[in-house]
Design goal:
The protein is of the alpha/beta class. The protein folds into 2 domains: 12-64; 65-261, Aminopeptidase (3-Layer(aba) Sandwich). It contains 7 helices and 7 strands. Strands 1-3-2-4-7-5-6 form a 7-stranded mixed β-sheet.
Length: 264
């Protein structure tokens, strides 16, 4: 709270009074000038903050939702097309677990799964599909919200697994309450399981668990764990076989697309 200084109660002679009034008039002019300057400065600050917030928001969404088209620059995906036009598009969500280190290999889950996802993206674009991929720093909530806003028809989350150092093989999660999810998961799982050299772990219906991505998407979705990375041999296999994993995931997505989406 600002405190106003109280003027001293001084009685002036007539002449002095005239001078005092003149000074007060000047003081008021100065005060209004200052108020005007403060208002102008405040307005400029508000405008600058608004522009800065808009720029930050635009950059964040641009990173989080890369619209992948070989002939067009990347733009804010939500503005690219109406929802109906994106039904045949795919949203890829690679792991963002940058601190989840591989055993015996100098890399992380996020690094390797983003590498795989980039290759899946290129593979699907070559097949003629429109593909969006989540940015590096988006939260699970932001990924799902963006995919839902886009109205894509397929959502695939790509991860590598870890446990107690004894696990191996591919597994794929889906939510049976979301139409098409089991079929999508089956196609992706079968392709990836065939590519991995270890015994695999099957399809897992998780509609009662807390896997956020496949609980809250509005389209067919699955989360594939390509292999366990907390065993050195398996971690090295993932690093050496990102091309094979990308092709397997891409083939699984294409199978689902051709059967359930292409002709709709």
């Amino acid at each position: 709270m600002q405190h106003k200084l109280k003027e001293q109660e001084v009685i002036y002679e007539n002449k002095i009074k005239h001078i005092r009034c003149k000074k007060r008039s000047v003081a008021f002019r100065l005060r209004y000038d200052r108020i005007a300057l403060v208002l102008v400065a405040f307005t400029l600050v508000i405008v600058a903050i608004s522009l800065l917030v808009g720029a930050i928001k635009g950059a964040k969404v641009g990173d989080g939702e890369e619209a992948n088209d070989t002939n067009e620059p990347k733009t804010h995906a939500i503005n690219l097309a109406p929802r109906a036009d994106n039904y045949k598009a795919v949203y890829l969500s690679p792991s963002n677990q940058w601190d989840n280190e591989y055993t015996g290999v100098d890399t992380t889950e996020a690094e390797q799964m983003r590498c795989v996802a980039e290759k899946v993206r290129a593979y699907l674009i070559d097949k003629g599909l429109k593909v969006y991929m989540a940015g590096e720093d988006l939260s699970l909530v932001e990924k799902v919200d963006l995919a839902n806003d886009l109205g894509v028809g397929i959502y695939v989350s790509i991860h590598s697994n870890a446990g107690d150092g004894l696990g191996e093989g591919t597994e794929c999660f889906y939510n049976s309450r979301i139409a098409g999810s089991k079929q999508l998961a089956s196609f992706v799982y079968n392709r990836v399981a065939a590519a991995t050299p270890t015994d695999d772990r099957g399809l897992i219906n998780v509609h009662d668990t807390e896997l956020y991505e496949i609980q809250n998407t509005e389209m067919a979705s699955c989360l594939v764990e390509v292999e366990f990375h907390d065993i050195k041999e398996h971690a090295q296999w993932i690093v050496d076989n990102t091309d094979a994993l990308a092709e397997a995931i891409g083939d699984g997505i294409m199978e689902y697309y051709n059967v359930y989406i292409k002709n709709k």
